[in-house]
Amino acid sequence: MKSFLFLAIAIIFEIVATSALKTSEQFTKLIPTIITTIGYIGAFYFLSLALKTIPIGVAYAIWSGIGIVFITLVGVIFFKEIPDLAAIIGLVLIVAGVVVINVFSKTSTH
Fold first, then answer.
1. pLDDT at position 103, please?
2. CA 34 – CA 24 distance, rounded (Å)
3. What is the pLDDT of residues 44-103, one digit of tens each?
4. Which end of the chain is flanked by fewer CB atoms within 10 Å, N or C?
5. What domain range includes position 100?
């Protein structure tokens, strides 16, 4: 259970880092660049802790699935980037995939 907490923290760091990356303007703005760097370091550190007990494929599916959904929400709320129907369908399929892995896969219990 502790590993899933580490994974959640890693995802939060990744969301913050990716959001700051958008505002860094190709690393030309100092504060967003620093936030991006610290965010990705924190994300990979906590992901490495999660990988002690969570299989890498499962961890990455959760990481990327949740990250994509939340980054899309950040894009909508802060950058006015509205996804079209195809993007929304794709997001739903990604979430469904993560749910299937976590609910039905025996891999996720190892």
1. 84
2. 9
3. 999 999 999 999 989 998 999 999 999 999 999 999 999 999 999 999 999 998 888 888
4. N
5. 2-109
Q: How many domains does the chain have?
A: 1
pTM: 0.88
Question: Whole-angstrom Cα distance, residue 108 to residue 110?
Answer: 6
15: tokens are 């969301």
Measure the CA–CA gap between 105 and 22, rounded to whole angstroms: 35
Cα–Cα distances (Å) from 40 to 3, 34, 94, 106, in that order, read 18, 10, 22, 30
